[in-house]
Design a protein that fits this description.
about 280 residues; single chain; globular; seven-stranded parallel β-sheet; alpha/beta; 8 helices
Length: about 280
């Protein structure tokens, strides 16, 4: 089975479940070899279902090549070793998706910043913002040498409006700044950097909350996105010969769906968010 990304190599961080897994599956379905990273190796390593091995097998089933890499993105040496491995095994890197993020126990508690552990800041900034910067450093070295590449940072509308918790919003705002400034420095080298804002994504965490009756009845799941919707946005960017028009910007997955005319896996166009932007 051939696809538009045949022969290309991607790294997706935090890909054992959720949006990261969705991005990895769509890249694999387009024919890419996808290195998927996360800490979850065996079921039970995390309260939620999903492992990097399971994601890799699903990529294989879709026609791509999935390679599972157990990795803690707080470990810079381990991250460096991943990119060294890519150089030795594949000799190229075409796409990096920075998705790894620590969801703290207090993130959705509704408690104010002074009433949650200070470690919430360290968790979400270290694995979410700093980890994206570190992975981008190593990816950029390979991409600059090749004169081409795409880095996608999975961000959030929380970069511009209040969402969940102070540390969360600060981290996403900083991530979008990383997108803008790395794009500025990488533009002369043919490398594009884009932040994507998902909407309300129906992840494994949401599904478990629904099953346990822990979510409010007012929550409208009909407006939600599947984790693969963001992945379709990534593939659309990765296959666009004029992807540089997006570089340095934060754009909603829903806006990219309008631009590239793709839908979610069930054929719907989710509700948003939408960003009013000029392409």
């Amino acid at each position: 089975m051939s696809g538009p990304l045949d022969g290309q190599v991607a790294v997706v961080t935090g890909a054992s479940r959720g949006i990261g897994k969705g991005c990895a599956l769509e890249l694999g379905g387009a024919g890419a070899t996808v290195y998927v990273t996360a800490r979850s190796v065996s079921e039970g390593d995390h309260p939620l279902p999903g492992t990097i091995g399971a994601t890799a097998k699903e990529i294989d089933a879709l026609g791509g090549t999935g390679i599972a890499v157990a990795l803690d993105h707080r470990d810079d040496d381990a991250v460096a070793a991943l990119f060294d491995r890519l150089r030795d095994e594949r000799g190229r890197l075409d796409v990096l998706v920075n998705n790894a993020f620590i969801v703290t126990d207090e993130l959705t508690s509704g408690r104010p910043f002074w009433d949650v552990p200070i470690s919430n800041w360290d968790d979400m900034i270290d694995v979410g913002t700093r980890s994206a910067y570190v992975a981008s450093v190593f990816a950029a070295r390979a991409m600059v040498d090749a004169g081409a590449g795409l880095i996608v940072n999975v961000s959030s509308s929380g970069a511009e409006e209040y969402a969940w918790q102070v540390a969360y919003g600060v981290g996403k705002c900083a991530l979008d700044r990383i997108t803008a400034d790395t794009a500025h420095e990488l533009a002369p080298h043919g490398v594009s950097v884009v932040s994507i804002w998902p909407g309300f994504v129906r992840t494994e965490r949401i599904d478990m909350g629904v099953a346990a009756g822990l979510l409010p009845d007012s929550l409208d799941l009909s407006t939600s996105e599947s984790p693969r919707f963001v992945g379709r946005a990534v593939v659309a960017l990765a296959t666009d010969p004029d992807v540089g028009r997006w570089t340095g910007r934060a754009v909603a997955a829903r806006d990219l769906a309008d631009e590239y005319e793709f839908t979610d896996v069930d054929g719907r166009l989710p509700a948003g968010p939408l960003r009013h932007r000029t392409a």
